[in-house]
Amino acid sequence: MTQQVSKVEQFKEEASRAGAKLQELVGLQDIAPFIVNLARQYGVNRVVISSSPLAELAGLQHRLEKEGVTVTVVTATDSEATQQRLRQACAEADIGISEATTAISETGTLVIAGDDGSSRFVAVLPRFHIILVDCQNIVATMEEAIAKIKSVGSSPAKCVPTYVTYITGRNTTADIPGAILARAQGPAEEHILLLDHQGMR
Questions:
Q1: What count of other Cβ atoms lies within 10 Å of the Cβ of residue 160?
Q2: Which residues pair with 46 in a beta bridge?
Q3: What digits encode the pLDDT tens for the residues 9-41?
């Protein structure tokens, strides 16, 4: 692969090779229509959304609820009882929606960092998983990805994320203690929505 090939192009090639379905979107305004259409196509009734600035800016919860879809927004929690309820909601969901902290071009790997295990439930337990990726957050190597994750906790008000999930192609539920293994090999489909950073302004 020549040096002229961008990180984004390499990521697209490697992620597709691993079995993910990619869609390039111009900006925020395209997120909700694409996901609503996908929900209609699959007859979706329940969606779980991991805490995501892009999803919030796109008004995704509101748009899905207007379609009659039950939406659960999954946020970090220290309560075991709440985590159990969130785990159950994710296992029963048709679609889980996440936002990638970063993505690795050389392997097509998606990286989700969080403060508890709830973000992992959203990524692996529903029937289908959709992940939003800001193209500006795509890095070349695993080393760069680790550095980016550590930088999240570089300010005094933030800590380095405790949980980091790596997804390459279809993921599995094997590393989640107590998970309900309705789909032992994880979601049937992994959809990656690539967002042009310029289009999000």
A1: 13
A2: 70
A3: 999 999 999 999 999 998 899 999 999 999 999
